[in-house]
Amino acid sequence: MNKPEIVRKILHIVFGILILALSLLFDRGVFIRVLFILLLLCILLTVLHLKYNIQPIAWISKEEEKRFPLKGLLFFIAGAGLTVLIFDKNIALAAITILTFGDSICSLSNRFGAKYKVNPFKKVKSLFGTLCGVIAGFLFALIFIDPLSALVGSFFGMITEAISIKLGESDADDNIILPLASATAMFLLSRLPTLASII
Fold first, then answer.
1. Which residue stretches of the chain have pLDDT < 50?
2. Which domain holds residue 167?
3. Would you give the DSSP letter of residue 163?
4. What is the pLDDT of residue 137?
5. Cα-Cα-Cα-Cα dihedral sign, residues 36, 105, 103, 24
6. Other C-beta atoms lying within 10 Å of the C-beta of residue 173
7. CA angle 63, 81, 14 (to 5 degrees)
8. Does residue 198 fall inside a structural domain?
């Protein structure tokens, strides 16, 4: 992992903390409007970069993102917005927390734990990184939700992050898939007594 990638993951955490702070400061309606403004700013920066080649953006962009800089940031905002719109506040906050910390720790741990890397499937990232992501996501999700829900949400969120999910010819961005999968797992867990009674 090179320095730009480490910087990307640090920025990922910082931006995630900012999103969480905004969601705590504002109610759902205002929060969604703020995310929409942030989304427009990212689009504006992307257009400006494509025209003027803004060096900080170029430096932190992955090679495959040269034609779509700030892709990760845009999808992070979209994923957070959809999660907040669909799910209860605590579940949404826990899912965004898992995205913020679990995803970043997963990637960073691969740099410092390379000798523990095990890749059992072609489309799956290292088990060591995924395990670190699950633990980190679980611990931070405890801020908003009970331990069992935090564990289930972190586990399913990080599993979807590890496995490449296809949308057409491209991989689905985990900044959208991860929080939605995590929140869905926590939501279903919270509804187990109701589902059991129906069955």
1. 121-124, 166-170, 196, 199
2. 3-192
3. B
4. 95
5. negative
6. 17
7. 55
8. no
